[in-house]
Amino acid sequence: MKPGYGGRILRIDLSEGKITKEPTPDALIKDYLGARGFIVRTLHDELSPGTDPLSPEALFITATGPLTGLFVPSSGKIQSGGKSPITGGYGEANSGGHFPAELKLAGYDMIVLTGARDKPCYIVVDDDDVRIEDAGELWGKGSITAEEMLKKNLGEDFQIATIGPAGENLVKIACITHDFGRQAGRTGLGAILGSKKVKAICVRGTRTIPVHDIDGLIEVGRRMYQQCFTNPAFELWQTYGTSAVVNWANRIGAFPTRNFQGGYFEQFTNISGPRMRKDIVLINKACFSCAMCCGKYSRTTTDDYDVHVEGPEYETTAMIGGDCALGSIKDIAYANYLCDEYGIDTISGGSIIAFAIECFEKGIIDEKDTGGIKLKFGDAKGVFEMVKKIALRQDIGDLLAEGATKASRTLGKGSERFAMQMKGLEQSGYESRRAPAMLLSYMTSDIGAHHRPSWAVTHDLATGRDSVEGKAEKVIELQHTRPLFDTLGVCRLPWIEMQVPVSDYAEAYRKATGIDYSEEELLGISEKIWNLTRMFWVREIPGFGRAYDFPPARIYEEKLKGGTTDGGILERDKVEALLDDYYKLRGWNQNGIPTPEKLKSLGLDWVIKDLK
Ligand code: SF4
Known about the structure:
The chain is an alpha+beta fold. Helix content is 42%, strand content 14%.
């Protein structure tokens, strides 16, 4: 078994009830490192082109990385992936908690699910003992409730990932929840589990993870933790987590407001990190091996509700707070709880509800569509009801459950211009008309408009908010560096916020695995993986190209309203220039397709056939 790895791949054919375990191939480790790399290579190899993502033939994959579960800061991360039900392209979501390390300690690098059950089930992975159990009364229950029930049944030492009613109902923004509030949120992967009738995956691992040089790993791990503990931002991070960003994002006019009509929410102090800490936070909460504890466990209570919830974190506050104009942190936290329990991604959920509110206010939909709800920006009750309607596919919720792209195409009447998505995935929480590098990050993200692979707002502030020169180079650098953390199975936040250097992660990788990759070589593999995710889109979507990277017309035709960016806009020719530069630097053609030469240079000759 290779040091640093769980050593095995677990395959479950749900139709046949067949469970197999096989050694993780050395070549896969050498060429793709782990997690995200394993997922994209497996999709290319094992998913037939054109497969319906919600058919039994589709794959659901979840994979740890070589540093998952080891002695480095924040090593509790896992990637899940498949063909995205919402975009039809490459789908991937990152999550933390304690499930990832548990899976590795059970001796698995990856789980690959194929087929589908006739009846709802849940999967138990108890070290070597793997079984498929009848889900019985779990089906129909909320994600959090189901996790509680399974913990009671199996034991507290099991780590459990569940879907909610949204996943069961094949809602295309359905997420997977673990640890009472940690989500694999994006790209609708919860619906893939729902289509396979898998309510939950429950894991207990009691093995050890072999390490090449344990003393060396402890030495570098200590240094990395020390860097976190002594960083001046450590206390701020522990106190507010990602919500620390709310005030700043408003000050610079990058906080999505009223379906991205503006970048400044006038009630932002009511939903800021300090306000959240004061009004609702009970305690800090962290993923496995994390010192930073960005998670906040909260209780939100009014005359109408009284619930516990993890969060809200920045993205939820941006998309349900600013974008739907809710000015109460308690209401945002309650909407967060509903999304978690019903199993909806808060980013796509907030964005789609904001889209629906704007459609209502513009007369494109009315009370007949909404089941009697008068949608209005700022009305919390309407937001709560819409979360449920989307998850249960009731009234207009049935159409919204298909995502903003399909909803806008069906509703028409100009609504496409304010369905805030790229490649079919709703944009996450930064308004980017005055942040071109951030806009390019969204446009070229390999899952659709998401910030995880590249976050470049501070680069825009430093280099000019209206200029597009040099932005593509920075975005590409980030798109190789940030996803490397997802490939290694660790959280990127100690690198971003505590300045733990990438070189330390490279050293930890060498000590853990004995594989002598330099930092540059690891980043080279990250570039290869990036090109392979692009080729998955090329393979799966006929006519895929530049148009899929383009933002909705709101971005280049409508000026921002309110705050410091009032009147801001990025003209269409600048948007085109961003893409021109980006494609050129990537070695892709001007339609955004990797050239055969580029693929060859990355050792991806085998995928050139898909260019046809
Ligand atoms: Fe988890 Fe936050 Fe720590 Fe990252 S910083 S590992 S997301 S608790």
